[in-house]
Amino acid sequence: MFEARFETGETLIKIVDAMKELVEDCNIDCSTTGMSMQAMDQSHVSLVALMLQKEFFGSFRCDRSISLGLNLLSFSKILKCASKEDAITLKAEDGGDVLTLMFESKDGSRVSEFEMKLMDIDSEHLGIPETEYKAVVTMPSGEFQRIVRDLGIIGDTVGIGCEKDGVRFSVTGDLGSGNVVLKQNTSADKPDLATLIELEEPVELSFALRYLSLFTKATGLSPQASLSMSPEVPLVVEYKIDDETASYLRYYLAPKVDEDEDAAE
User: The Proliferating cell nuclear antigen PCNA C-terminal domain covers which part of the protein (predicted)?
Assistant: First the structure.
C-alpha cells in the first residue's frame, strides 16, 4: 500500500506543470524514504530529477517499493480538478493498476476522488555521477526566468560565464546581441534576493535557451535557483522545493559544443 498526502496541493500541481513539457511518460518511484523520478526528455538532451523526501509530506506510507507509470499530461489534467488550497492524497495498492487521487477542501466540506490508469513504462534508471562543480551560482529564480526570457528574444543559444565577482549571460542572434551581468550580492535582510557565487575556477559554457526556458517553469516552486557548472559536463539547474527535507527538482542540460572546434578536431 502506498499513500502520500500533500497538505497544499498547489505544490504538486506546480511540480507536474514544471515537468510535463519535457517528460511525457515517466515512472514515479515510491519507497520507504519518499518519492523520486528521473527521466530524459524525448530528444535526450536534458534530464529531469525529482526528489520528495517522506518528511516533506503531511503523511506518508509505502509498505514496499513500487513504480507508478504516469502520463504527465493526463496527470496534469486530473490535477486541474483540484483547487490550489486543496489537500491532495495519492494512493495505490501493491500490484494495482490505478492511482487514486483524493482532493479535500480546506474546511473539509468537499472531497473529490478520481482514479487514473497506470502505465507499464519500460525505463532504465540513469546513474547520475557525483560531480564536484567548478562554479555554483545561487540567484533569485524570478531573475533567472527574466534573463532567459529576455535573451530568448535575441537568439537561441546563451553563453553563461562565471567569474569571481559575477555571472554573465550573453547571446548573439539575427537581431543583434545582448548581455546581462549579475554581480555577487549578499542581501542579509532579504536572503531570497541574494546572488551568491562559489567559484573554484572561471567557467564559460553555452546552452540552448529553449531548454532553459522550459526549466524556468519551476520558478514558482522556489524563491531561488542554483546553477552548477563545470567544463564538459551538464549544467544542473536546481529548485529546492523544501530546504528542511532536502526535497528538490533538478534539470540537467548538456552544453552546446562549438561547431568550429569540432571541425578543427
Answer: 127-256
Rounded mean pLDDT of 80-105? Answer: 94
Q: Per residue in 177-213, pLDDT tens?
A: 999 999 988 876 788 888 999 999 999 999 999 999 9
CA distance 151 to 157: 9
Confidence (pLDDT) at 261: 43
Grouping H, G, I as helix, E, B as strand and the rest as coil, residue 217 is: helix
What whole-number distance in Å separates Cα of residue 100 and Cα of residue 122? 22
**Which residues are registered as beta bridge partners of 170?**
159, 179
Residues of the chain with CATH 3.10.150.10: 1-115
Give CATH superfamily name and number for 1-115. DNA Polymerase III, subunit A, domain 2 (3.10.150.10)
> In terms of Cα–Cα distance, which of 99, 135, 94, 122 is closest to 12?
99
Closest CA relative to residue 52, chosen from 69, 37, 72: 37
Q: Where are the alpha helices (DSSP H) in 80-173?
A: 141-152
Tell me: the pLDDT tens digits for 121-166? Answer: 877 666 777 788 999 999 999 999 999 999 999 999 999 999 988 9
Angle at 31 between CA 115 and CA 90, to 5 degrees: 20
- The CATH class of the 133-251 domain is alpha beta
Stretch(es) of the chain classified as CATH 3.70.10.10: 133-251
How far CA 140 is from CA of 135, 149, 152, 170, 226, in Å, comes to: 17, 14, 19, 18, 9
* Residues 6 or more apart in contact with residue 239 via CB below 8 angstroms: 18, 141, 218, 219, 221, 222, 224, 225, 248, 249, 250
